[in-house]
Amino acid sequence: MEIKDNFNWTAEWQIHKFKDPTDEIAKRLQQGEALEKIIEEHPEAFIGKEIFKENVALNVGLQYLIDCICAIGTTTKWDNTNARLGVGSDATAADPSQTDLLDATPTWKAMDATYPQRSGQIAEWRSTFGSADANEAWNEFAVDNGATAHKLLNRKVEAKGTKASGETWTLSLKITFS
Q1: pLDDT tens for residues 139-167?
Q2: Rg (CA), the chain
Q3: 3 inside domain
Q4: For residue 2, what pLDDT band results from cuts at 50, 70 and 90?
Q5: What are 10-50's pLDDT values in tens digits?
């Protein structure tokens, strides 16, 4: 068997949606509680789950990732202290040359406690958007490495509905590296 140089990543996004007018569920998820436990304890609040795949790796993020690997300059990691998941309403197709979400006022949320996580060659980021957060059409998604560095690793465009006040949506991104 011949082995060749190759690098690949596969992205899987998930949104878990809950009725949560008091933000009780949002607070528990932001503290790192398991989604399965919340769904089991509050089945009446669970609206549903969506899974969608793929995204476009952005040049700015890939270049910065190489800087992190090579310890070039002062780099900001996509870690619990810095990483954020962002959502916006713009539906313009994703392109590797983009450097940001295209919505004029996207919403960025810090990582839930204990995220990101790694299992084998899978990295997972998770953020919870409470009742007052990102109440708009969810059409574009990304992970960045914080407000100061703000280097987007990727961008995904796909309509996933409109989040309303009184709802909590948890967004997660899993990237499998192979």
Answers
A1: 999 999 999 999 999 999 999 999 999 99
A2: 16
A3: no
A4: confident
A5: 999 999 999 999 999 999 999 999 999 999 999 999 999 99
Task: Give the three-state DSSP class for 159.
Answer: coil
Place of tokens 């140089």: 5
The pLDDT score that the predictor gives to residue 5 is 82
- Cα 151 → chain centroid: 13
Q: What is the DSSP secondary structure assignment for residue 67, as one 8-state letter? A: H
- To which residue do tokens 């690997």 refer? 69
Is-cis flag, bond preceding 106, omega within 30?
Answer: no
What is the strand order of the sheet 140-144 is part of?
56-57, 154-157, 140-144, 84-88, 107-110
Six-digit token pair at 29? 């998820």
Domain holding 138, by residue range, is: 9-177
What is the spatial distance between Cα 176 and Cα 178, in angstroms, rounded to a whole number?
A: 6
**Domain membership flag for residue 172:** yes
* Domains held by the chain: number: 1
What is the distance, to the nearest Å, from the Cα of residue 152 to the centroid of all Cα atoms in its chain?
A: 11
Indicate the pTM of the whole model: 0.95
